[in-house]
Automatic annotation (TrEMBL), chain B:
<keyword id="KW-1003">Cell membrane</keyword>
<dbReference type="GO" id="GO:0055085">
    <property type="term" value="P:transmembrane transport"/>
</dbReference>
<feature type="transmembrane region" description="Helical">
    <location>
        <begin position="233"/>
        <end position="258"/>
    </location>
</feature>
<feature type="transmembrane region" description="Helical">
    <location>
        <begin position="179"/>
        <end position="201"/>
    </location>
</feature>
<keyword id="KW-1133">Transmembrane helix</keyword>
<feature type="transmembrane region" description="Helical">
    <location>
        <begin position="102"/>
        <end position="123"/>
    </location>
</feature>
<feature type="transmembrane region" description="Helical">
    <location>
        <begin position="12"/>
        <end position="33"/>
    </location>
</feature>
<dbReference type="InterPro" id="IPR000515">
    <property type="entry name" value="MetI-like"/>
</dbReference>
<dbReference type="Pfam" id="PF00528">
    <property type="entry name" value="BPD_transp_1"/>
</dbReference>
Automatic annotation (TrEMBL), chain C:
<dbReference type="GO" id="GO:1901982">
    <property type="term" value="F:maltose binding"/>
</dbReference>
<keyword id="KW-0813">Transport</keyword>
<feature type="region of interest" description="Disordered">
    <location>
        <begin position="21"/>
        <end position="59"/>
    </location>
</feature>
<dbReference type="Pfam" id="PF01547">
    <property type="entry name" value="SBP_bac_1"/>
</dbReference>
<dbReference type="InterPro" id="IPR006059">
    <property type="entry name" value="SBP"/>
</dbReference>
<feature type="compositionally biased region" description="Acidic residues">
    <location>
        <begin position="32"/>
        <end position="59"/>
    </location>
</feature>
<protein>
    <submittedName>
        <fullName>Extracellular solute-binding protein</fullName>
    </submittedName>
</protein>
<keyword id="KW-0732">Signal</keyword>
<dbReference type="GO" id="GO:0042956">
    <property type="term" value="P:maltodextrin transmembrane transport"/>
</dbReference>
Length: 311, 273, 449
C-alpha cells in the first residue's frame, strides 16, 4: 500500500490505518473473487489437465492411460515436424510484430487526421477483423488460386505477370501467403486498441507543443509515442501470444500443407490429438506452446520493468 | 487551398488502406448475391442478376434461431466479462499488495493455452455441472477464456489513469466500490469498448466449444448452424457468404456503437479537463 | 495478515481446481459404470430404469450421430421414422455434423465417456481405433450378414468380428469431358501409354489434362493407389498392410511414385494443385469451364455436378483407370470405399434397441432410397436402381475382379496421415518416391509390426 500517502497522514491514528488496511484486503478479495472463480474452474483447471494428460500415452478415446513421465516431451524434442512448425510460428510472430502493430498504429493515427468521411473510413478499416475466419479463409483460397485467382489477375493488370503463381500451392510461398492473411485480419484490432489509448492522451499536451512550434512528426515522436509505449508493449505481448497459438485460418486455408510448409504448432497439435488419436502427445505439444509463450511474456515484462526503471 | 494539397497524401493513404481492408468484405457481399454456377464460372465478376435466393436459403436452416442463440450467448458473455474483468483489474492496477504481479501473470497465462486439448476436461466439467447442451455450457468457457485479455487491457488502461483523481476522491471519503464504479469505470470507456468489440467478435464466431458442448439444434449457435451449407464433399460458397454477411451485421453494429461511445467519452473527457 | 487471507483464498481455489481432476479420473478411469452415470444426466433421465429389460416400459431416448446431408440425410431420417414407429415409446435424437467437426466431436464424446448410442463412420482404420479402445459393440450375430455385399461388410470386420453395418459404397473411375474428347478425336484409353498420349494431346490444345484439388490430400491419393495397384497387382496393399510380404517401400510402390511424378512433370495437373481445395470447388471449376479434361474422382462427382452445374452432366463420361504394360494389375481392379457404416457404442445403455436402430438404418429400404435419391451404390444386395447412371456405376463394381478400399480409410489414422502427406509431397515434387515410400514403411513398421 502506498507508503508515501500514509506517511503524509501521520496524524491519522494507527487504529484507522489498520482499519483501512482491512478494508483494502476486503476490497482485493471482493473485486477479484468472481473472476478468479470462473477463471480457476475453467482455465487453470484446463491448463493443469493439459499438463496431466501430457504425461501419459493416451489415445483420448479409451481408459487406457499409460503413465510415461516426460517421454512425450523427449519425443517432441526429436520431432522434425514440431520444430518446423515452431519455425513457422516464429515467422508468424515476427511478421505480426512488424506489420500488425505499425499498420494498426498508422490506421489509428489516420483516424485522428482531418479527413472527410472519417466514420466511413473507420468502419471499413475495421472490416477484416469483423469478418468471420471461415469467410476470410474461403475467399483467400480463391484470391490466391493459381488459375483464376484475383491476386494473379491484379499482378497482370500492373504488368507483373512474372510474379504470377499458385500462392498457397507452393511450399515456398504458401507460408507467406497465409501469414499475410493473418496480419491483414488482425491489424484492425490493434487499430482500435491504439485508438482507445490515443483518445486518453490529454489535449493540453498537444496544445502546448504546437505553441512551441513542434511539427507533426515531433509531436508524434515526443508526445504520442512515449505515452503509447505501455499499450504498445501490451499489444506486442498480445500479438506474440496470439501468433504462437494461432490456428483458425491455417485450418481453413491449408490444413498445414503442402508438405507441412504451413504447419503451426496448434494445427500440428490438433492433428495429433484428433486425427492421429494421440491425446497425450497432443497435450504435450499444447503444454510446450504454453511454456514457450510464458517464457517470452516473462522476458518482455521483465524488460519493460527495467525500461521503466531506467526512465 | 494549400491545406487541401497538404492533405492529399493523407487521402491517398486512406483510400489505399480502404481498398486493402474493404475489398474482401465487398467480395463477400458480392458473392452472396450470385448463383453457385455464376460463382463457379466467374468468381470475381459482379452478379449476373442480383438474386436474394441465397438469403432465402437461410430461412430453411432456422437461421434466426441460431442468430438469437448467438446473440444471447455473446451479449451475456461479454457483459459478464466486462464487469468481472474490470473488477479484477482494479486491485491489480490501483492497489499495491504482494500478490499483485503473480496474480496478473496468473490471468495472463490463460491466453497461452491452446483450447483444443482442453476440450475433454471442459466437456467432462460441463457434464458434471449439469450444463451440457444448454447455453450456459458455452457462457462459462467463453467468459473464462475471454477474461485474460480483458484483465490485461483493463489493468493497462487503469494504470494510466492519473493517481490524483483517486486521491481527491479518497479525501471526499469515497469507498473502494464507489471509487471504482463512479470514477474509474467511466474513465475506462475506450478500453471497455475495445474489449467488448474484441470478445464479442470472438464469441460470435466461436466454433469448437459450441460443437463439443452443445448437441441439439435448439441451442446451436450461428457458426454451428452454418455448417448445414457444407456438404460431405462440397461447400455452397455463395450461400455461406450470404449467411456470413448477415451474420456480420450485428458485429458491425456493435463496432459502430462502441466507437461512437469512444468519441462521446472523448468529448466528455475534454470538458472535464 | 492480508497475505494470509489471500493464501487461504488461493488454497481454496486449488481445492476447487484439485477436485476436478479426480472427478475426471473417476469418469474416464473407471470402466463402464461412471460413464453410464454421466450419460444418464444428459441423455435419458427417465429411461435409466429400464436397463435390464430390452423391452422399454418407459420412454427411451437414443442418440444418433451421423454425417449424411441432403438426400442421404433424408434417407437416414426416414429410417429413424420407421424405427420410431416400430418401437413406440422410443425417441431418437438425431445430430448431423459435417465431416471434420464430426470426427472431433465424436473423439471428445468418447474420451468424455458420453458417446452417442449409434454413430456413423467409414469402417476401416478409423473405426478400428474405437474398436480397439473397447468403445464399439460387436454385432456379428445380431445382423444378417448375408444381406450385405461382402466387400462392404469387410470394411467394418476385424478378425471375423463385425462392428458396423454399411449402407452405401462408392467407386472411383476417371471422369472426362466427352465434348473435348470428341472434338480432339480422343478415344478412351486402354493402356497407361494411351493415357499419357491423351495427356500430351490435351496439353497441346491448352487443356489441363487432369484437374485435381490436392490440398484435400485424399484426392491425390487416388492416383497413387491406382498406379500402385496397376504396378504391383491387387495384393500389393494387403501384403504391405497385413505385413505378409511386400512392404510399402516395395519396388512397385516406388515405381508408382515415379509414374505419378512423371505425370506432374508432364504438367498433367493444374498450377498449384497442392493449394486447391476440393470442397470449395476449385478443381470442378476447371472441369465445368472446359479448361480441364479429366478427373479421377469418386462417383459422387455426379452429385456435385447435379448440384452445381446440371447441364454439364451430359458431357460427363467415365472410363476405368487403364492398366500399365508389364504391371501386375488390371483395368477392372477398382478403387472404392464404404460409407456410411453404422455402429453401436459399447457404453450405450440400450444396446439392444441401438442394434435394432442400426439394422433399420442399414436396411434395403434405406439403401434403396439413398441409391435413388442420392446416387449412392448400395452396400446391401437386391436394390433396383432407377437412375441409369447409378446402375452403370453399380455394374462396374459388380463386374470388377478386385476392389481396393481407400488407403486413408483402411489404414490406422496415423499411418493414413503419413500416406496422405507423402503423396502430397510427391505431387509437389518435394520428395523422391524412395524417400516417400521409406517414410510410409517406417511408420508402418512402428504401428503394424
Amino acid at each position: 500500500m502506498g507508503e508515501a500517502s500514509t506517511q503524509k497522514h501521520i496524524s491519522i491514528k494507527v487504529q484507522t490505518k489498520a482499519a483501512k488496511k482491512r478494508k483494502e484486503i476486503l476490497a482485493i478479495i471482493g473485486f477479484m473473487t468472481p473472476a478468479l472463480i470462473i477463471y480457476g474452474v475453467y482455465v487453470i483447471y484446463s491448463i493443469f489437465m493439459t499438463f496431466y494428460y501430457s504425461l501419459f500415452d493416451w489415445s483420448g478415446i479409451d481408459n487406457n492411460f499409460v503413465f510415461q513421465g516426460l517421454e512425450n516431451y523427449i519425443t517432441l524434442f526429436q520431432d522434425e515436424v514440431f520444430w518446423e512448425s515452431l519455425g513457422n510460428n516464429s515467422l508468424l510472430v515476427g511478421a505480426s510484430l512488424l506489420t500488425q502493430l505499425p499498420l494498426g498504429l498508422i490506421m489509428a493515427l489516420l483516424l485522428f487526421s482531418p479527413i472527410k468521411g472519417i466514420r466511413f473510413f473507420r468502419s471499413v478499416f475495421f472490416m477484416p477483423f469483423l469478418m468471420s475466419t471461415v469467410a476470410i479463409g474461403i475467399l483467400f483460397i480463391f484470391i490466391y488460386d493459381g488459375n483464376f485467382g484475383l491476386l494473379n489477375a491484379l499482378l497482370e493488370m500492373i504488368g507483373l505477370e512474372s510474379l504470377q503463381q499458385a500462392w498457397i500451392g507452393k511450399e515456398s510461398t504458401a507460408i507467406w501467403a497465409v501469414i499475410a492473411t493473418v496480419c491483414w485480419q488482425f491489424a484492425p484490432f490493434y487499430m482500435i486498441l491504439f485508438r482507445a489509448a490515443i483518445v486518453g492522451i490529454p489535449e493540453e499536451l498537444y496544445e502546448a507543443a504546437s505553441i512551441d512550434g513542434a511539427t507533426a512528426w515531433h509531436r508524434f515522436k515526443n508526445i504520442t509515442l512515449p505515452l503509447l509505449m505501455p499499450i504498445i508493449v501490451t499489444s506486442a505481448i498480445l500479438s506474440i501470444i496470439g501468433s504462437l497459438k494461432y490456428f483458425d485460418l491455417i485450418y481453413v486455408m491449408t490444413m498445414g500443407g503442402p508438405n507441412n510448409s504451413t504447419e503451426l504448432m496448434a494445427t500440428y497439435m490438433y492433428k495429433q490429438t484428433f486425427t492421429n488419436f494421440n491425446m497425450g502427445y497432443g497435450s504435450s505439444v499444447s503444454f510446450s506452446m504454453f511454456i514457450i509463450a510464458f517464457i517470452i511474456t516473462l522476458f518482455i515484462l521483465i524488460g519493460e520493468r527495467k525500461r521503466r526503471g531506467v526512465e | 487551398m494549400i491545406k487541401r494539397i497538404k492533405q492529399m497524401p493523407l487521402y491517398v493513404l486512406a483510400i489505399v488502406l480502404l481498398l486493402f481492408t474493404g475489398l474482401p468484405f465487398f467480395i463477400m457481399v458480392n458473392t452472396s448475391f450470385k448463383s453457385q454456377l455464376n460463382f463457379m464460372t466467374s468468381p470475381w465478376s459482379l452478379p449476373e442478376s442480383f438474386s436474394f435466393s441465397n438469403y432465402g436459403l437461410l430461412l430453411e436452416i432456422d437461421f434466426f434461431r441460431y442468430f438469437m442463440n448467438s446473440l444471447i450467448v455473446s451479449v451475456l458473455s461479454v457483459i459478464i466479462v466486462i464487469v468481472i474483468g474490470a473488477m479484477a483489474s482494479y486491485p491489480l492496477a490501483r492497489l499495491k499488495f504482494k500478490l499483485n504481479t503473480p496474480l496478473f501473470l496468473l490471468f495472463m497465462v490463460g491466453m497461452m493455452i491452446p483450447i483444443h486439448t482442453t476440450l475433454i476436461p471442459i466437456y467432462l466439467l460441463t457434464i458434471n455441472l449439469g450444463l451440457y447442451d444448454t447455453i450456459w455450457a458455452l457462457i462459462g468457457p467463453y467468459v473464462a477464456f475471454a477474461l485474460p485479455i480483458a484483465v490485461v487491457i483493463f489493468t493497462q488502461f487503469m494504470k494510466e489513469i492519473p493517481k490524483e483523481l483517486e486521491e481527491s476522491a479518497k479525501i471526499d471519503g469515497c469507498g473502494h466500490i464507489r471509487l471504482f464504479w463512479n470514477i474509474l469505470f467511466p474513465l475506462l470507456t475506450p478500453a471497455v469498448a475495445t474489449v467488448a468489440i474484441y470478445n464479442f467478435i470472438h464469441i460470435w464466431n466461436e466454433f469448437i466449444f459450441a460443437l463439443v458442448l452443445t448437441n441439439s439444434s435448439d441451442v446451436a449457435t450461428l457458426p454451428l448452424g452454418l455448417r448445414e451449407f457444407y456438404g460431405e464433399f462440397t461447400i455452397n460458397v455463395p450461400a455461406i457468404m450470404a449467411a456470413l454477411t448477415l451474420g456480420s451485421l450485428p458485429l458491425l453494429l456493435v463496432y459502430f456503437v462502441a466507437q461512437e461511445k469512444i468519441v462521446k467519452g472523448l468529448a466528455a473527457g475534454s470538458v472535464k479537463g | 495478515m492480508k497475505f494470509r487471507l489471500l493464501l487461504v483464498f488461493l488454497l481454496s481455489l486449488v481445492v476447487i481446481v484439485g477436485c476436478n481432476p479426480t472427478n475426471t479420473d473417476v469418469s474416464t478411469g473407471g470402466e463402464n459404470e461412471p460413464e453410464n452415470e454421466s450419460g444418464n444426466d444428459t441423455e435419458t433421465e427417465s429411461g435409466s430404469e429400464s436397463n435390464e429389460s430390452s423391452e422399454p416400459e418407459e420412454d427411451v431416448t437414443l442418440t444418433l450421430w451421423h454425417i449424411e446431408d441432403g438426400p442421404s440425410g433424408e434417407a437416414i431420417e426416414a429410417a429413424v421414422d420407421r424405427f420410431e414407429e416400430k418401437n413406440p415409446g422410443v425417441t431418437v435424437e438425431v445430430s448431423q455434423q459435417e465431416n471434420d467437426p464430426y470426427k472431433s466431436k465424436l473423439v471428445v464424446a468418447m474420451g468424455g465417456g458420453n458417446p452417442p448410442d449409434v454413430f456413423s463412420s467409414w469402417g476401416g482404420g478409423w473405426l478400428e481405433q474405437f474398436v480397439n479402445a473397447g468403445q464399439v459393440k460387436e454385432i456379428t450375430n445380431d445382423i444378417d450378414q448375408d444381406i450385405y455385399v461382402e466387400a462392404a461388410l469387410s470394411a467394418s470386420t476385424y478378425g471375423e468380428k463385425v462392428y458396423g453395418a454399411p449402407i452405401g459404397m462408392a467407386v472411383v473411375p476417371v471422369f472426362y469431358n466427352k465434348e473435348i474428347f470428341a472434338d480432339l478425336g480422343i478415344e478412351e484409353p486402354e493402356t497407361f501409354d494411351d493415357l499419357t498420349a491423351i495427356v500430351e494431346t490435351l496439353k497441346e490444345n491448352d487443356i489441363i489434362p487432369f484437374t485435381l484439388a490436392n490440398q484435400s490430400k485424399w484426392t491425390g491419393s487416388f492416383y497413387l493407389m491406382y498406379l500402385a495397384e496397376r504396378m504391383g497387382g491387387p495384393d500389393l496393399f494387403s501384403e504391405a498392410y497385413n505385413r505378409t510380404g511386400r512392404g510399402f517401400d516395395d519396388e512397385a510402390y516406388i515405381e508408382a511414385g515415379h509414374k505419378l511424378q512423371e505425370l506432374v512433370e508432364m504438367e498433367a495437373f493444374p498450377e498449384g494443385v497442392n493449394g486447391m481445395n476440393y470442397d470449395t470447388g476449385q478443381s470442378r471449376q476447371l472441369l465445368y469451364s472446359g479448361k480441364a479434361g479429366m478427373q479421377v474422382m469418386g462417383n459422387w462427382l455426379v452429385n456435385n455436378v447435379r448440384d452445381e452445374m446440371p447441364e454439364f452432366e451430359e458431357k460427363l463420361g467415365f472410363f476405368l483407370f487403364p492398366a500399365i504394360e508389364g504391371g501386375q494389375g488390371a483395368k477392372n481392379h477398382i478403387v472404392g470405399g464404404v460409407s456410411p457404416v453404422f455402429s453401436v457404442s459399447e457404453s450405450s445403455e440400450h444396446q439392444d434397441l441401438a442394434t435394432e436402430l442400426v439394422k433399420e438404418l442399414a436396411s434395403l429400404e434405406t439403401s434403396t432410397q439413398m441409391a435413388n435419391t442420392a446416387g449412392d451404390i448400395s452396400a446391401i444386395k437386391g436394390v433396383e436402381y432407377e437412375d441409369p447412371y447409378v446402375q452403370e456405376i453399380s455394374d462396374v463394381l459388380e463386374s470388377s475382379e478386385a476392389m481396393q478400399t481407400y488407403y486413408d480409410q483402411t489404414l490406422p489414422p496415423e499411418l493414413a496421415q503419413v500416406h496422405l502427406d507423402t503423396t502430397q509431397a510427391l505431387i509437389g515434387l518435394s520428395m523422391t518416391p524412395e524417400e516417400a515410400m521409406a517414410k510410409v514403411e517406417e511408420k508402418a513398421k512402428e504401428l503394424l509390426d
